[in-house]
Amino acid sequence: MTWEELEAAAVSCQKCALGKTRTNCVLGCGSRETDLMFIGEAPGESEDLQGIPFVGRAGKLLDKYFEAVGIERDDVYIANILKCRPPQNRDPDPAEADACLDYLRA
User: Fold this and answer.
1) How do residues 1-28 score in pLDDT, each as one tens digit?
2) Most buried of 33, 85, 91, 92, CB within 10 angstroms?
3) Are strands 77-80 and 28-30 parallel, antiparallel or unpaired?
4) Which domain holds residue 25?
5) What is the Cα–Cα distance from 81 to 46, expressed in whole angstroms?
6) CATH code: domain of residue 58
7) Range 77-92 burial, b when 16+ CB lie within 10 A, else e
8) What is the pTM of this model?
């Protein structure tokens, strides 16, 4: 599957109810050629609004960690298990994680 096919499938995904409540699909960001990937649980409100993972409070903390160890954010790939924000940032249901897992693997 190409990146374009992966993105198109994720954007149109309706495998769980979260596809109906999201503002944006949050697939991932960074280098697609890296050997280093950071994976979070699910997008929060800031991520849902911008369509980019780890741009809210957790993202600011992650950026500080990167800086402390000399990693450039653009040199790694950052994604979440879920591609859609759960309402009120609740913990993901196992079925929601299962529905998104193939996107992460791809």
Assistant:
1) 899 999 999 999 999 999 999 999 999 9
2) 85
3) antiparallel
4) 3-105
5) 16
6) 3.40.470.10
7) bbbbbbbbbbeeeeeb
8) 0.90
